[in-house]
Amino acid sequence: MKLTDYLVHFLEKKGVRYSFGVTGGAACHIFDSLAKSSQIKTYFNHHEQASALAAVASSKYNDVPAVTVVTTGPAGTNTLTGVLAAWQDSTPMIVVSGQARSTQLSAPLKNIRQRALQEFNISNLVKPITKFAETIMEPSQFPQMLEDAWAAAHEGRPGPVWIDIPLDMQWRDVPENGLISAVEIETCTSDVESDGMLIELAQAIKSAKRPVFLVGGGCRQDKTELNRLLKTLSLPVVTSWQGANLIEADNQSLCLGRVGVYGQRGANFCIQNADLVIAMGTSLGSCIIGNIPENFAREAQVFSVNIDCDELSQPMLEKLKSVPVPVSDALIYLRATCSEAGPIEDWCETVEQYKYLNELDYSKLPWMTDNFVESYKLISELSAYAGEQDVFVADGGGTVLFSTFQAVQLRRSQQLHCTTSICAMGTGLPESIGIATSANMAQHRVFCFIGDGSLQFNVHELQTIRHHDLNIKIVVVNNDGYQAIKQTQKDYFESKFVGTCEQDLSLPETKNIAAAYGIDYVNLRSEQDIKQWLSSGCQKMGPQVIELYVDPRSEVFPVQDKTFNEDGTSTPLPLERMAPQLSDDEFKRLMKVPMV
Q1: Which residues contact 284 (CB under 8 A, 6 or more apart)?
Q2: pTM summary value
Q3: Which domains does the chain have, with CATH numbers?
């Protein structure tokens, strides 16, 4: 069997359904083999970064790795942003690259930078951000290479893998009897019954008076078992951005939303007043715990269940109690040993009050005028209006990212996606494509929230959306561009706007962009416009660009507050101290631990 045909048959056996790429000379054989597949649907983008980001989103949404296929040289380096996203978000994804002929590679030689047109040793470059990266030099070794790559993508902490295929290897023969049927991946397990830290965690759950679960993206593969445990214990739960989609409908009443510096106020109050935090599958990075770790959940025991021992060794939280076992093992153990939590009725009543803190009051915002609308209002109303299977995608660019994760209230089977590890401007369109191309999305909508500045980064993907007539509603937040950076320059650089002012940078009219790509365009400048669009325009099938005009002076809210020092630096306040702050009386009433 031809080597590239073998590759496709292998991917089919593993259940792969989607691939994304940009064609090129050294990848023609790979795409030709993919074109023969009745199972794997291939979508072509207009830039390799978009292909990789689409594959990451598809992998997350479908719980099956998607494939990125590119040619050699700059095509490979163009994918790196997407590969980094898969690496840091722990997403299994497969990249297949074409390469120059095996006789023309520079890798075997010393100090040779290049031997053939677009030839480059991509495998060595991507090794630090992949779990497996190899160039095939002998066709007989290809079956084992594929099995090794697939296993690496799934074992332990998941991540991307890279398979590089020189051009003269692509048409070589591989024995058909070498094709291995799909096998179940063995996962790392522990003797959880005897694990002292798990025993201690179980005892802590039984004795805690104010417990809370903190769910991260590392629970993605164990979503069913996680929700069984939550249902059994009926404990309050908050999530990281990556964990936002993991709380099933039956448990959504327990969830207070997303926690962190740019989190939701109710979620922050809950975790800051807890006496026990059970962190599952999260690295507890600074976006979650803040820049002064000792202020995080300061009166609580903090247990962290994480298969990545390196993450547990970070010197962020001195009081952290590490539980270095797979999340699946911990969940099964806790469900078997903790039939119920301790007496927490009073805590549950308090938590119900915290939920109302997530509601956003727009009337008190100093920048609210009749000439603009507030993005939070549209996002909040849209999440209530959207169908139970609809999906929200937040672009990684600053202001829109924060407002989306704060304002969206997920219902039933709705999902909210973003490669939040990299928080890169321009991810929104490719990720929307990766989700909207899934077979079960044909009758559902993807709502993509993206800033007018971020739109420029992958604007060419509007043609991919138009070409396939994807049902993506692209909400472009017009805040005159780069609002998050302008806020930083206002706070720390005496409002010296460099690289963000009209003398340095300009943006095209969104209406003209939509027209150029033949996509329906709507603009929203008032609350009446929003109501009209939600009731009629939003119902239309196919792509649509919706431009939302917000006040350029608008800021992210709520956000962890800070005090400014005489030397121009700032000191962050604890997570429960979010701006705009609550009244002193309300704050004191809601706090269960000493105030700082």
Answers
A1: 304, 314, 316, 317, 320
A2: 0.93
A3: 3-178 (3.40.50.970), 192-358 (3.40.50.1220), 375-549 (3.40.50.970)
